[in-house]
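Q: My labmate handed me this sequence with no annotations at all. I'd like to see what the chain might look like in three dimensions before we decide whether it's worth expressing. Could you predict it?
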Amino acid sequence: MSKVQLIIRDLGNHLIDKLEEASTICILTSFIMNSGVHFLKEGLKRAAENGADIKICTGDYLYITQPDALDEMLSIDSRIKTRIWKSNGVSFHPKAYMFQSSEHDFLFVGSSNLSKSALNHGVEWNLSVSDEQEVFDEAQSEFLKLFYAEQTVPLNKETLEEYRVNFNKYQQKYPNLTQKLTELEELDLMLPSNKEIPDQPEIIIEPPVQYGEIQPRFAQIEALEELNNTLEEQYNKALVVMATGLGKTYLAAFFSENFKKILFIAHREEILNQAKDSFTKIMPEKRYGIYNGKAKETHADAIFASIYTLSMKAHLEQFQPDEFDLIIVDEFHHAAADSYKRAIDYFQPKFLLGITATPERNDNKDVYAICDGNVAFRLDFLEAIQRRWLSPFNYFGVYDDTDYSQITWLGNRYDEEELLRAQLRDELAQKILSTWEQKKQTRKIGFCSSIKQANFLSNYFNGKGYRTVSLHSQQKGVGRKEAISQLSKGEMDIIFTVDLFNEGVDIPAVDTLLFVRPTESLTVFTQQIGRGLRLHPGKEACVIIDLIGNYRNADVKLSLFDTQPQDGKIRNIHPSVPDFCEIDLDVNVINLLEEMGRKRQPWREKLFNDYMDLKRELGRRPTYLELHLKGASDSPHYKQEFKSYIGFLNWANELSEDEIDVLSRGGNWLIEAERTGMTKSYKMVVLLAMLDRGKWHWYKPITPRETAPFFHQFFMEKEHRKRIDFSDKGARKFWEYDEKGVSKLIANIPMTKWSGSSKELISF
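A: Here is what I predict for the chain of 764 residues:
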């Protein structure tokens, strides 16, 4: 039976009682103080030792959270996962504690932050809600969205040190405020803010059109054939990359006919319901269920699950690891996130299928590795346009004279307040309006960087006699469905929006896109471009109007339209676009892009910043493999610029004195190992056999016959490498031999080839 209780004192002891028995613990607190960590420390430690799934989210708002408290939190148990919400000055004041056991659910919500005063003897009001399943599930679901949001960073030694530096700077800037906070420690400060809460992207789905019996069409036919070939070749993982508008969800449904029990994972509730409807049309005989914060339908042939819900251990363990024959991960470019990792690592399906239109995540983590590099089918929007499956485009690059170099960069976005001061100018709005009037067609969407900018431009356009609306997550006026309907009918001139139409939306009639925001993420930019490329009667081409200034990624964004992209950091100013497409750039835009391309130091700065972002995430110096898989810059760029990864580390002052000494003596060998071609893996397997002998013996001479057993075992265990490396007839001929034959293969290919190309670093 559910129960609601008012707690006006001593909340801490209630929490300690629940820590003892909980298997899942979620704590959301606007700040953390030393006293609060000490108060709960033993309880949290015992809970972690008991195997509880513990997640804690706090914030940096006004730098009230004490660095020493975060340090103490890190020391309790490495299994406790803590993340910090980067507020960027926006109020962050939630206080909630959630405990889940096999018998009960408890939710505490109120005024108490994580400090001893708030938990023990202060004047605080909190409500305890127990065994109210729907409320608890909703609270937990919302917590997970905050916990895994892009505004959060994991707490580790690197991010703690960064926070400590910023904390000290804030103390120096506001000594009176921070002194009072230090003296009182427990004070909960709530200052008014005129900033809006960061909007959460939402998805609008147009009512589906009934087509009768649905059959594979266009790219789906080829992709389905390649997936079936992948099954025959005995792969158990694959990635399909298909441009927006080509029917990825229906493709997944057609492929699912090969399997009995299916799990479909997505990060948005709307996508789950849309996918369920699509699968039902293809396989009406199956039973379908939803598993998310509100519904827990486990008895079904196909389950459509929220990744946020599955990221919790308690929900994940509702299923057996091998329960599903097929797991489909939608919008797979998110799959490198921590929220996905637990689910992907837990399940052991017969087949894992990733589907996406944009395989590079916002931070460029290598999602290909999750599918063992097996891309079964790829068709991006440029090739789809060539095949007439998507609409052509006419792109206009319009010069933006805003000096973005004077706006503070916060790691993944510009400072909102400074950006708004630059954007909310009548002269800029007038330039946007006049350009739009010259280039526009009939149905338009304008992409803005903030709610305030969307409201400002909508009001400005309305003042000039146009019918516009600003659509965003805080919209209280016109209904979204109504606005989209008016746009489709031509009754609305333009919709200004903020990340509302990134994923899952389908408005085929849109024929004009207006970008009045800096391109901070190439993934988001690609998604938004896709909003205008769907085929529609009467649409000959999509017009793209894009303001280009000296913001980050301005010099690389045009590469997205290039059918013959340059490999490396030099980009074409005038890319080779598909047939029937055009790119028209202002002269000032051309001059700007050429100037940005000439500046080499910012390129090195970008490589360094991307490296530091990854170092902060990991809490330590990344290995070269981690840089390759998770870094925002492509790993070959470090090699191009610094000859080797260790060369970059030396330039960045990231090496110890001992490592610098090793570099001075063996730098040429490290460069050789790093630059070795990897079309086949033979050379690296020989090196691996040498390293396998230990650090005191690895460099000693080795013969082909000594290498043969390790060589043979490696390829026997690495089935996918064997298929690649022994694909030619000559290799297969050698492979049929015994140890003598394998030795001959090693002598003929890796050892002879390597010694001949290594500038005498290697001899055979």
